[in-house]
Amino acid sequence: MSDRIKIKEILASDKVDYTATVKGWVRTFRNDQFIALSDGSCLKTFQVVVDRENTAPEVLKRITTGAAIAAKGTIVASQGKGQSYEMQAEHVEVLGVADPEKYPLQPKKHSLEFLREIAHLRFRTNTFGAIFRLRHSIAFAIHQFFNEKGFVYLHTPIITGSDAEGAGEMFQVTTLDLENIPKQEDGNVDFKKDFFSKQTNLTVSGQLEAELGALALSDVYTFGPTFRAENSNTSRHLAEFWMIEPEMAFADLDDDMDLAEDLLKYVIKYCLEKHQDDLEFLENRLLNEEKQKPQNERSPMSLREKLQFCLDQPFERLTYSEAIKILLNSKPNKKKKFQFVIEDWGADLQSEHERYLVEKHFKKPVILTDYPKEIKAFYMKLNDDGKTVRAMDILFPGIGEIVGGSQREERLDVLLSRMEDFDIPAHEMEWFLDTRRFGTCEHAGFGLGFERLVLFITGMANIRDVIPFPRYPGAAEF
Ligand code: ATP
Ligand code: MN
Fold first, then answer.
1. How far apart are CA 103 and CA 326, in angstroms?
2. Most buried one in 83, 198, 214, 416, CB count within 10 A?
3. Mean pLDDT, to the nearest integer, of 265-276?
4. How many Cα atoms sit within 13 Å of 408 on the Cβ side?
């Protein structure tokens, strides 16, 4: 049926009294007459009124929750409550049945944990429909943002032979026979016999390669999957996640922070404009969930208020050293309420500290800069104090770190000595060092965790619920 029209289009147009075909999945079927149909194009379902007299009882019986149907009829203004248009169907065809005895998604509230177990079907719920429509738009808005600014989308390798990125544990990639691993004389694995004739891993970041691109194309960004074999079973970590990594030549840390703040605001604004329905639904979901919590644990703002609030003011920018002072003087630190009590300057900040700064102290997104060099990566530009580096982390309410970035060390001699400090063998990084040998210049970039942004915008609590098929320790289903 080529005159198929999506529900979103029907509801968006003010046309009535025309013939059309709708296709989708039955949410509910009442009184052998009223189908609530979803095709995923929008949150709303569409009412199809079945012509009971002229529809065979065998067909009526097969119209059950979850079944795929096609309905042809006239789109009319609806007399019923709750919808503006409906279809007076002349013909309903059941395309694919869903045995009500076996179909797991009955029209009732299912827990997110249960839905995670049936992630192959959870797209069909309102919650996950909203999440994945938003996820799409967030990705789209990110590409649009960079395109408007003249950035080149660069595809950095997923299988990498560079193991010096130092951003956590890596997954190994090999075709060696694990039952019979070839060894060298010294007993080490003979990677010469492996597929790439060397040891390879799944990438943890495309940054180093993006730097190579930026030092020729000026402004580039990556947007691809990244992998970390870290055993962090948290609601904010995945073993496979997507990252956006812009890199700008002739840019310093201020330019970097401006870019990140602009990007986040652009994407949030885009979602507020295009996804009122989905956000309203997720907002109400959250309100209902919070009703079970004591008053003081409920968030002071609704989801859309929180998103709007982020747009309305500049993010708070301060140095790590200033943040440490605030934390040292904070109640939870003095009363030893933090799991990790801050003792001195130099401490790595945990998510509890980041969230204190954002949620309790400043009550808005915060950008921390100039971290101690020991707790940040080797490629970050050393400040004149010799102790701190030009790093920046953006901290968001409910999330903690959402962006990690820096101005890069463009001075060859300083970079080499920093690599020595970190025991990174320079001879494996000649390709990277060449950028500092030939036409080096100030440059800066950052990594934005895509799922952390989706988490923030959807108001969901667990990162496993904002990616279609989450990978985390012990779980690689589907
Ligand atoms: P965290 O301290 O939260 O583990 P990180 O310091 O390891 O983060 P970076 O290496 O700077 O993070 O990575 C850049 C961004 O990627 C982070 O700001 C975050 O948004 C995201 N990110 C990092 N690790 C994960 C993960 N395991 N799952 C999902 N997103 C992640
Ligand atoms: Mn990490």
1. 54
2. 214
3. 98
4. 28
pTM above 0.85, yes or no: yes
Alpha-carbon distance of 233 to 65, in angstroms, equals 35
Ligand 1 binding pocket includes 452 (Cβ within 6 Å): yes
Which residues sit opposite 91 in a β-bridge?
A: 72
Which bin fits 223, alpha (ψ -120 to 50), beta or left (φ > 0)?
beta
Q: At 44, list the tokens.
A: 């709303």
Q: What is the model's pLDDT at position 232?
A: 78
Q: What is the per-residue pLDDT across 31-42, written as a single tens digit (0 to 9) for each?
A: 999 999 999 999
Helices (H), 275-341: 276-290, 303-312, 320-328, 331-334
Q: Using most ligand atoms within 8 A of CB, pick from 135, 165, 243, 472 the residue to mutate for ligand 1.
A: 243
Model confidence at 163: pLDDT above 70: no
- List the strands of the sheet with 366-372, edge to edge: 152-153, 219-227, 240-249, 443-449, 400-407, 388-396, 366-372, 316-319
- Pairwise CA distance, residues 133 & 221, whole Å: 23
Q: Which residue owns the Cα nearest ligand 1 atom 12?
A: 404
Sheet holding 200-202, edge to edge: 159-160, 200-202, 172-173
- The CATH fold assigned to 7-108 is OB fold (Dihydrolipoamide Acetyltransferase, E2P) (2.40.50)
How big is the chain by its Cα radius of gyration, in Å?
27
Which has the closest alpha carbon to 96: 73, 60, 70? 70
Does 7-108 match 126-169+204-465 in CATH topology?
Answer: no
Domain limits of the chain?
A: 7-108, 126-169+204-465
Q: 161 vs 417, which has greater pLDDT?
A: 417
- Superfamily (CATH) of domain 126-169+204-465: Bira Bifunctional Protein; Domain 2 (3.30.930.10)
Six-digit token string for 90: 């002349």
Largest CA distance in the chain: 85
